[in-house]
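hiii, so i know i said id send this last week but things got crazy w the move. better late than never?? heres the sequnce for the chain we talked about at the cafe, plus the structure i predicted for it. fair warning i was half asleep when i ran it
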Amino acid sequence: MTVERVAVKDLKLNEPVTSFFQVRNPQRRLRKTGEPFVTLVLGDGTGELPAVMWEDADGIGEQIREGDLVKVQGVVGSYQGGLQLTIQRLRLAREGEAALRDFLPSTSADVPSMLASLTQTIRAFTNEPLKRLFTSIFEAEGFGEAFAAAPAAKELHHAYLGGLLEHTVSVVRLCETIAAHYGGAVDRELLLASAILHDVGKIHELTWERGFDYSDAGRLLGHITQGVLFVEEQIEKIPDFPPGLRLELLHNILSHHGEYAWGSPRRPKTVEAMILHAVENLDGKINLFLKLARLHPDPYREGWTVFHRSFERPLFFGEPEAPGETLGEGREEL
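okay and structure toks below
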């Protein structure tokens, strides 16, 4: 019998579910009685849902791995203010029953258009060393494909295929607006170049073949260090690249997280670095806000999200919508 897939975003409280999902973060745990149980996150391209399996935990816990596709039967309940699936039966998907690509979230924006936007920005540069640098980077084998496909994070903002590109384009556009506002006080081309490269290390930090995770190098170094190493390696290929430009470009990448507590090796010390940090932080937070409003509303309180650890609070996204309206209607879908 063919099972019609049910999307995570369409799951409702107290409804029975039989469908295929991708396994994320499976963990075998023990109750106070010493009996084992399994917790995991079930996901697809529309969202994620925490799940728990109380029975047959030893057998199931040995079978499933991160990124596996599984067929699940269970009931949607609630836990700590959000939805949770209690699994009654689970097995690995058989060959041909489900395709992995269908279960990974991806950008709804047009990838070729976003790449064209970045290309147009780069071609407009009058700073020849920066132009040569970006020509070298984007002509490198495999770079363009990785930059267009990579997520921007494992699980927070822009955590979907194409998320890195979408986040980068958004940050560039916002930086263009701010540079125009402040005029000659800002080195516009340095700022835009920094915006394009600020998260470039994520193509090395993250993996996205079976789901989103950290590479070994990503865990050991992190995307900021990896990004600086990558850009410095590319600069070495450009004859007579100005030392001052190199220093400020690398500083902007190093400091874009803003604070030591947020993993930034340096705090911003130039106007371009301050703008870049503020903009990329804003874009990440707005993307996460919209994601929570769309995928994690509080089932008991309309207009609110569930509590989220990144914001350390629930968020208010508005009163219930009139029929036919959608959250964020008129905005570009993220």
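btw DSSP finds eleven helices and seven strands in the chain. thought thatd interest u
miss u guys!!
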